[in-house]
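Quick one: co-fold with P-hydroxybenzoic acid.
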Amino acid sequence: MRTQVAIIGGGPSGLLLSQLLHGAGIASVVLERQTKDYVLGRIRAGVLEQGMAGLMRKAGAGARMEAEGFVHEGTQIASGPEMFRVDFAALTGTPVLVYGQTEVTRDLYAAREAAGGEIVYRVEDVVIDGADTQAPGVSYTVDGARQRLACDFIAGCDGFHGVSRPTIPASVRREYEKVYPFGWLGILSETPPVDHELIYSNSERGFALCSMRNAQLSRYYIQCSLTDRPDDWTDAAFWDELRRRIPEETADQLITGPSIEKSIAPLRSFVTEPMRWGRLFLCGDAAHIVPPTGAKGLNTAASDIHYLFEGLREHYLDGSDEGIDRYSERALLRVWKAEHFSWWMTNLLHRLPDQTAFDLRMQQAEIAFLRDNLSAQKVMAENYVGLPY
Ligand code: RFL
Ligand code: PHB
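Sure, here it is.
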């Protein structure tokens, strides 16, 4: 089998790239390790930057997002009993869109299927060969048979645990990592959200986030210990802890119900450089991870896809390799800014195990500065709504 671009991974990065390439008349095949239902069962990001929303429209997959996504013009930041608002629309002229990654992925699958796009599910033992030659390929096993997909380029969109990143020789890769000493316990519940905007809360008992998917579906998170397991937390214990971590008036408004999903995510910052090796390009979580504070994971994957798509389009349609040659440099410039913002917001809002009384005062002073200073709010808002591509 042969295609122009072999895409490893059918998460949001791989599907978006495949659909954008299709729009430009460039052929691709997506190789996914799981089934479609499995991919759609993962509850992940909830907030889309305008850049990501624009790419969904450009990919011809934006109609349901336009109709059902919620425009958020600001967010609430709570610190102990107090709460203040950062007004994205007033500070930047740009809102964000609340529309879950599950729905993004569902829409991209639908668009790919409608266009007759080729997605091979349940691939095993994926091996990349010849990435540093003119004739790369990807071998895999499906239904017990070994196949090889020959291609011009390989997009490694296979997430943090995929095969693409380790294919780049260790002598070429530079990796940067920070593992945070806590996780997020998240639940999804079929209850109306406690507020019409997101609430990021720094409390003395630890961080909490009130988020949502729609008017009847809420997503809440609390900072938890890395040794906790989801089953350690009954729904009642979760709701009690959440109530203690948000301002009282908000807690009084909270409508609780049974959780329909409960999971723990560890928090990590990670970047690998370069994001290209020969004809292999890393995109999204395959190349970098951010802690979820600030909602940058999916959005940073989207900016990689923008740069790679433009590079491939220029290669095939304009005969120029400048875009693909500069892909790693361009993507990383924006990736590091998202890494910085996510790290900053994580440090601002969480309780750290080794935090001294002085450290705590520094955190409180920074939150007070953000509350009182519109320039500081503008910096936060510009990062939150998404830096330009
Ligand atoms: P994904 O979504 O991980 O998709 C990668 C796909 O590749 C497949 N795969 C392979 N396929 C073939 N061969 C192999 N050898 C393969 N190995 C893996 C996988 O099955 C999968 O389908 O990466 P992508 O597309 O780059 O998208 C990135 C986003 O998913 C990610 O940045 C965000 O979801 C991060 N993230 C969150 N971001 C936010 O902005 N807000 C959140 O609340 C949020 N919650 C989360 C998250 C990531 C999590 N992970 C990765 C553990 C919660 C979790 C649990
Ligand atoms: C979510 O709704 O899952 C969500 C929202 C904002 C974040 C992280 C996660 O910063």
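If it helps, Residues 45-47, 198, 209, 211, 219, 292-295 surround P-hydroxybenzoic acid (ligand 2) (CB under 6 Å).
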